TrEMBL record:
Keywords: Hydrolase. GO terms for molecular function: hydrolase activity. Residues 53-192 form the Nudix hydrolase domain. It comes from Streptomyces rubellomurinus (strain ATCC 31215). It comes from the Bacteria. This is NUDIX hydrolase. Its cofactor is Mg(2+).
Amino acid sequence: MTSTHPDTPALHADAVRTLTDWRPAEQEQDQLRRDYLAHLDEQPEGLYRACLPAHITASAAVVDPAAGRVLLTLHPKVGMWLQMGGHCEPGDPTLAAAALREAVEESGIPDLTLLTADGVPVPAKLDRHQVRCTGKDRPENTHLDVQYIALAPAGAQALISEESLDLRWFDYDHLPELTDHSVRDLVARARQLTG
């Protein structure tokens, strides 16, 4: 397949490196990691929305550890409270940069930083889910989401974007009902990893 995005080789190589280097302890997460790597091996364009029936996406739970809170967006298409995130774009130099870009755009907080290990941003978890990102009258496709933790400065003020119906901070122990197990698990991991 010919690459239609000039930055695809660099972003693709970064995604492969990120998923190769990241070694989760849980067997289910490691299986997802291997599935994502197989997808990237088969799909040179596997990081972009046009790659169907599945593509890699990047997201981040925006947390304010000092206040013990997480910022969630009420997604207009899904109708649930989710972490910030979305599709990779041709200008994204790395998978982590895509997650950070989405987090900044959707939160309105310009000075977010991703949680790192040895100075390198690392995923917190992976989540595979079905969506209709190509339109409600189109078949579902699969998001292979790579999820990070974005640290907000203490007391950060969020600013809602047009991509959201609502945007709110929630205490770790009082997440809204309209969240799924994946969001709850990501928030629990963020809480654990940020102490």
